[in-house]
Amino acid sequence: MNKILLALLLLCLIQVSGQDTNGVQYQFSKEIFKTKYKKTYYESYNGVIESLNKNEWKFDDKVLRVYSNDTSLVAIFSKGIFYPEIIVGTETSKILTKSELDTMSTKRKVFYNLTRSDSLTIGNLVELEKLNPDFKTKRFLFWLFRIGFANPQECYFELRNENATKEMKISEFIENAKLTFYYAGTIII
């Protein structure tokens, strides 16, 4: 009986004194914006954006998939404010056929998959509301999934809308927003 009471007491203490994940997330994100921040204005994508479905777009030869609980944030990508070249640059990787892949050694297949830049997936996209310095600036975090990597990479970006007002909804904010910061952070383990 004493062991059960001790276990329950210990569980309650851990629950009360433990940090919430939001606090930890903001602590690390705050450090990134404090130490890595360099304001840079990025041009919006000027090519054709082909919508493949509600979560997938093709930018020239690169496919970007975006998953978010807040569907209004998806417009950041569908409008070309943020696009694959910001992450991988202008390099393109040749897509091999199944028969070409079948003739490769296992090591070469692994290397090929690690260097592919034709398909990226963004998930866990959230606004870091507590880190927004003013109502004209919004900061975000997402997880970047690449082909050939088991774990995602945590990435940060900032949007700025000079015409924003305090009452503006996020969908309106995105309409005239510009990307002003991007940083690829650590691998999530």
Describe this structure in words.
Helices cover 32% and strands 27% of the residues. The chain has helices at residues 2-17, 21-35, 75-78, 84-88, 98-102, 106-115, 170-175; strands at residues 49-53, 56-59, 62-66, 119-127, 137-146, 153-160, 178-187. Strands 1-2-3-4-5-6-7 form a seven-stranded mixed beta sheet. Strand 2 (56-59) and strand 3 (62-66) form a beta hairpin. The longest helix is centred in the N-terminal third of the chain and has 16 residues, at 2-17. The two termini are 38 Å apart.
Which keywords apply here?
disordered N terminus, alpha+beta, 7 helices, 27% strand, single chain, globular, 32% helix, 7-stranded mixed β-sheet, 189 residues
pLDDT < 50 runs, ≥5 residues: 3-21
Number of strands: 7
Category by helix and strand content: alpha+beta
Strand count, sense and barrel status of the largest sheet are: 7 strands, mixed
* Percent of residues in β-strands: 25-35%
Evaluate the radius of gyration: 20 Å
Helix and strand succession? Answer: HHEEEHHHHEEEHE
Shape descriptor: globular
N- and C-termini, Cα separation: 38 Å
Q: Tally the helices: what do you get?
A: 7
The strand order across the widest sheet is 1-2-3-4-5-6-7
Mean pLDDT: 85
Helical amount: 25-40%
Brief sketch in words of this structure:
The chain has 189 residues and is of the alpha+beta class. Helix content is 32%, strand content 27%.
List the helices and strands and how they pair.
Layout: H1 2-17, H2 21-35, E1 49-53, E2 56-59, E3 62-66, H3 75-78, H4 84-88, H5 98-102, H6 106-115, E4 119-127, E5 137-146, E6 153-160, H7 170-175, E7 178-187
Parallel strand pairs: 3-4
Antiparallel strand pairs: 1-2, 2-3, 4-5, 5-6, 6-7
